[in-house]
Predict the structure.
Amino acid sequence: MAKRVGRYTIQMEKMPSINGFAAVCGKKEAEGPLGQYFDYTFDDTTLGEDSWEKAESQLQTESVNKALEKAGIIASEVDYIFAGDLLNQCISSTFGLRSLDIPFLGQYGACSTMAQTLALSSIMVETGVANNCIAVTSSHFCSAERQFRFPLEYGGQRTPTAQWTVTGSGAIVVGSGKGPFVSAVTIGRMIDLGIKDANNMGAAMAPAAASTLMDFFNDTSTGPENYDLILTGDLGEVGSKLLLELLERENIDIAGKHSDCGLLIYHQKEQDVHAGGSGCGCSASVLCSVILNKLRQGELENVLFMATGALMSPTSSQQGESIPSVAHLIYLKRNM
Amino acid sequence: MAKRVGRYTIQMEKMPSINGFAAVCGKKEAEGPLGQYFDYTFDDTTLGEDSWEKAESQLQTESVNKALEKAGIIASEVDYIFAGDLLNQCISSTFGLRSLDIPFLGQYGACSTMAQTLALSSIMVETGVANNCIAVTSSHFCSAERQFRFPLEYGGQRTPTAQWTVTGSGAIVVGSGKGPFVSAVTIGRMIDLGIKDANNMGAAMAPAAASTLMDFFNDTSTGPENYDLILTGDLGEVGSKLLLELLERENIDIAGKHSDCGLLIYHQKEQDVHAGGSGCGCSASVLCSVILNKLRQGELENVLFMATGALMSPTSSQQGESIPSVAHLIYLKRNM
């Protein structure tokens, strides 16, 4: 049974198993270094739909259906679906998943959503409240850009610290099985150090990542040496450097262990993505492709997956607010 | 320990206890029939803040602090806070709660959020994953109106089926204690019967309420006669009538047991609210005042609280989409 370890961490004892996972992405992601790992990629950014929002919904439909297929179960065997995204009122999730007829719990964690949905799915399975849960999220460059920044037609210039929203979705089916397993979960607190630049999300989110990682290390009396990989969601180039700096001040060196999904998904220079990838779909599609594959095949054994979210809106930024951030951590293990 | 009953319902065995609850509202709500029951009401719709969005955040801060005080605990004793609201990217919750330093799980269930956050808080406490959780949500007439409909200065005409967004917040501290207790929870599936009129949310949400209530009755082999009160969130006048009609077709008569928070909170005619109150803060502030007080004092013994959410956005409506809805049910008992 799940038990609390330290102040912030939940240790799983039955160990929820990741029985199916899938990642679907767009054209730019297909052309990136992880292209071969995605279950599907779409050349047409609209996926044949008549708006980018509907296209993003379709990404969730596709990733969930593929994850179910890979888990060998059907929708009616799933007890709860935890889903969220970046769009106002989380409409990608709603419209992408409404036909599944699965009890639905909408989540909002901005780019931390993959970790948040996976954490809650794992807790529900671990405690016996559910037999099977789905965790899913998505983002789409075009729907995000026009909602958060400028109309695409405007062709706005991007600052060097800006990141590129991933067009993609990742879905995970959690149940009982042969792994990879969710071994522990640390839910983050909101951290706000006063960053106000909405074109520098990495800087806003790095302190939340540092806080949650330190909470986990403290709670479990472990350190970077105990893990193969410490994978952040979408800190990008700026945020990753800051995370390392913040941890160094606390005498924690993760340099040899750290990767960031936002730095893995694109050929950064050639694909002109500035500080890296971002969006809920960034960590979701990286986790649900290359990372979980390597965990399943034994190329990785112990991974800390930590997705970060910037909990702002265009309105809060226009009103002069800083950017509170949050990071949730999932400890993934190949074996029990 | 929590166990599943039937397909959709979770029966609590340890029974999470509502140890503190608070409701804070605005001026119009103070002038309504429940005015005396709210913990605080504010004459100034800005609460002294410089925007309505910040005012709404402040409503959450106030309700959480009051609920903590009434539960006799402090923020650092709370393991998780489940919070959400209607604003884009759920900024009322983020900015209202960031200073609490409590592990934060943002929720999006539109006007079903009070039931959703209370359901998840109860599950966490029941399963021993948490000792104390907070469930909180809010809405604000002015922030909702300008985000979902028109600038307030425009003075748009309202249709007869339109509802009035409640300015208010409700917060609940769930832990171990003397009750009232959460006895069972039914998480709803999304239902979409094709309603597209964003000024008729009641009609869009009624089928979801009917679906979840029937799930609960089926799962528990009970009927309306087993409960003192069946309280929906904000179906308003139109949706309430439709709910009764939909259930009558299934030979379920809840007429003598049903109330709707949207019909309780205002003097409907005198206060010119058309089809009734709405918004996350509607069911939250009614539940967290008069209803939980009556449960505590024994005037009510068995209550089914069912908040409904319309999972649309202005963008989805503009793109011609219908309105998927969801309803989550909480079975509240005075005694174990």
Summary: Chain B touches chain A through 56 residues (CB under 8 Å). Chain B has two domains: 3-175, 181-333.
